[in-house]
TrEMBL record:
Keywords: Membrane, Methyltransferase, Transferase, Transmembrane, Transmembrane helix. This is FkbM family methyltransferase. GO terms for molecular function: methyltransferase activity. One of its GO terms (biological process) is methylation. Signal peptide: none annotated. The lineage of its organism: Bacteria, Pseudomonadati, Bacteroidota, Cytophagia, Cytophagales. The chain crosses the membrane at residues 12-30.
């Protein structure tokens, strides 16, 4: 098995050349983005080790300058994205089903965050309605994403947007159809993302006069 892996590595070197590989590692865009650090650490981080959402890089670059200090954010799923948002916006609320993960991530979170523990099911789906408030951004990046989208769209501010991550997956089409039926437009950001070598798509759904200025 080890011999097979070594042969595959050398096949890559032979195809694109050692010089090209070194350029990617030492001076390429992936180095600047922090991709190699994220791959080695298995965490979504930038080149300095700071947390990043596990979105496509193109979407991160688009989103960050549009976030405002007064924003309220809700996330289905928590992690480095929660830390990233919390460093910019007023407050982040997240829901998680994995109690072991909650115990790991909570000590790393700043004070302007709240993480709800909910088992997978209706209480998880409807967690966005728990605090009886509206959010500028709702991120659907956890379990039951179609049903979570249905619950979340009712909890957006008038200028609020919804982010559906990994939106290239065919089984999320019903979530897209729902957002379109509610009058939202769709903007896709496809490309590379931290940690893994395959591409993905992050999608933001928005209306006229939205908080991101799209």
């Amino acid at each position: 098995m080890i011999r097979v892996l070594k042969n595959k590595v050398w096949d890559v070197f032979n195809v694109i050349g050692i010089g090209a590989v070194l350029q990617l590692v030492l001076t390429g865009a992936l180095k600047d983005y922090g991709w190699f650090r994220s791959y080695n650490s298995r965490q979504s981080v930038d080149g300095d080790g700071n947390p990043l959402p596990w979105y496509t890089y193109s979407f991160i670059f688009f989103l960050k300058p549009r976030l405002k200090p007064h924003f309220e954010v809700f996330e289905y799923g928590s992690g480095n994205s929660t830390r990233w948002y919390a460093g910019i916006v007023k407050h982040v609320t997240a829901v998680e089903h994995d109690t072991n993960w909650i115990s790991l991530i909570t000590p790393k979170l700043p004070k302007n965050t709240t993480v709800m523990s909910r088992p997978v099911g209706e209480t998880y789906i409807n967690a966005v309605q728990t605090e009886n408030k509206f959010y500028h951004i709702v991120v659907v990046d956890g379990r039951n994403r179609v049903k979570c989208t249905t619950a979340a769209v009712e909890c957006l501010t008038e200028d609020g947007v919804l982010i559906l991550d990994n939106s290239e997956r065919e089984w999320y089409q019903k979530a897209k159809d729902l957002m379109h039926s509610k009058g939202f437009k769709q903007l896709d950001f496809r490309g590379a993302l931290p940690i893994i070598s395959s591409e993905s798509c992050s999608t933001v759904f928005y209306r006229e006069g939205n908080c991101l200025g799209i």
